[in-house]
Every structure is written in C-alpha cells, then in structure tokens.
C-alpha cells in the first residue's frame, strides 16, 4: 500500500491482480485516504459490481484488444477498420481504467470531448458502441446502461442538390489542388456510387467503350457486382482522367493515392501545388480535405452522401422505377424508396400541369367557365 499527497489532496496506490490502482480520495485528511484505500481493495476482492465470484480485474486496453482479436474472423474488412479507428480514440480516455471502473459520467465526458474535437454524432456513437460491446462481453454494461445516452443522429436520407449547387460544386472541384476530386465528384453525381465503391474502383471494373462500371466491394451483398451505366459526360470525364496515367494497368486504382507538393523556387511563397508521386496500386484514402475546401469555397453545406441522393432523385424524376433504382444503386431502405416515389409523383404532377396552363389561356370573360357548366347541364 502507498499513499501520497498531491497539493492538498491525498491519493492511494496499490497493485491488484497485475493492475495498478491509483485513485484520489478527494480529501485533505490522511485517515480518510487510508479508509478509502481499504474499502477499494475490499471491493475488488469481493468482486466488482456485486458479482458473487471474484473476477480478475481487466484493464480496458487489454479487454478491447482481446475482443477485437476474437471477433476479427467474423467481421468484414470495413467493420474491422471502423472498430480500429474507434479504438484509437477510446484508448487515451479509457485504456488505463479497469472495466469495472468505467461509469456513465466518464462516457458522457468522452462524448463531449469528441464533439468538441469536431467528431459527428454518428462517429461518437460508433466509438461508444465498441465500448458497449466490450463491457457487455464482460457482463458489466447492464450496470451503467441507464446512465448512458447515445447522441441523436440525423434521420434523413440526404438532400438533393440543386442544379446551381451542382454547377458551383463542380467548378470548385475543377479548381481544387486535388486533381482527382472533380472526376470523382462528377462520377458520384452521375452514378450514385457509394463513397467506398468509388474510392476502391480499379480500372478493370470500368468499361469506357460500353460505358459501364462493375461494382466491386460494396456495403451490401446486393450492391456487389451490379452494373452501373455511365452518362456520356461521365465516360468522357473518365477517359480524360485515364489519359493522365499513361502507364495505367487494369489492376491499378482509378483514383490512386498521390503525394502533393509545392512547385516553385525553394524558400519562396507561391508556386503551384502538384502531385510529385503517385501510388497506382493504392486507392486514395479520402477526399475529405479537398472536399471540405471545395464546399467552403462556394458556400455549400452538404455531405458526400448527398451526391448519391441527388443522383437517385434525378433518376426517379426521370421516370426510373423502384426496380431500376435498386439495380443501379444497390439495396435501398424502404424510407429511401418512399422518398423517390414521392419525387416521381411530383414529376408527374409537373408534367400534367401544362394542361392547367392551356385551360387558363382558353378561358375568357366572354366565355366564363360557369356558362359552360350550365350549358352542359341543359344538354343533359
């Protein structure tokens, strides 16, 4: 046992089950600290959280890594990557805590800290969910579940960008230092490909003669292997993009990772940002930085997913059936199907509204609608 003083507060520290327990008594009185240390040790010896059998205490850092290793074979690469990203953020906050020490107020502080750092509600919920899975595995989650509130997420399926917004966004993307941003955004708007489907594309999946993309790895089983037909503008854009890689091979990434630098005189400002190295076998990790800059340049707030939503809305307005949308876009939720059915209904109403214009132009004071009605009644 060891107790020590920090400022005006006494702390205790001891080893238990291979883990170092260090905690503040929150008291300036030494006797209180001694009593707190004894109670804490006794609690651990009885077994955390009123368990009948004493369990060997586990640090979160070790428990979460063991859990990820156990579940690795059952998850897709994307799921494994998602949880690995979550662990990078969770470990600095919870890594040195015993599982039995994690409380609802600590999770609440974590949520606030992540939001302050700029993470979205959805991202924070994914991270907290990994924490929940680990605690549930240890049969400890139920003890704090009522004290944890998940953040509210956006329930909308996205929004359709106007023609003006699309034009301004594409203009900003053309001016971007990231030369792959424009062809990527235009292809997304014209095909509705998911961001990962687009990012992982290889040239052997793109048929520029027939104008077809064969989707590879997708979010859903129904999305994998589907054929997505390309507009003439998309084909032309991808041909121009392909021409920038004279040594491109079928196995190379359509949107490869590139390293950028400033071309100009050493030691001076200005110059031009250009790619100085391309990694053809590696798909681009993200367009996030260039995408944010392009949106900021034209004052448009939207998500990358809204490009997919805009593509679906335009196809629906053009008369595409639910079956056609599902074939082109992959699986869609009933809520999305309902949304696009509404879009089609609006397009049909707009189409027949031309008759209202014709009817209003044919009406005149000499022949008001009431007289027509009365005449028709007399005929009957």
Name its key features.
single chain, 380 residues, alpha+beta, DNA polymerase, domain 1, hpI Integrase, Chain A, 3 domains, three-stranded antiparallel sheet, 8 strands, elongated, disordered C terminus
Your description of this structure?
There is one protein chain. This protein is α+β, with helices and mostly antiparallel strands and 380 residues long. The protein has 3 domains: 2-44, no CATH class; 60-147, DNA polymerase, domain 1, CATH 1.10.150; 163-350, hpI Integrase, Chain A (Orthogonal Bundle). Helices cover 49% and strands 12% of the residues. The protein has 15 helices and 8 strands. The protein has helices at 30-46, 60-71, 77-94, 104-116, 121-137, 163-174, 181-191, 195-199, 232-242, 288-298, 305-317, 322-329, 334-352, 354-362, 369-379; strands spanning 2-6, 9-16, 19-24, 206-207, 212-214, 227-229, 256-263, 272-283. A 3-stranded antiparallel beta sheet has the order 1-2-3, covered by helices on one side. Residues 368-380 have low confidence and may be disordered.
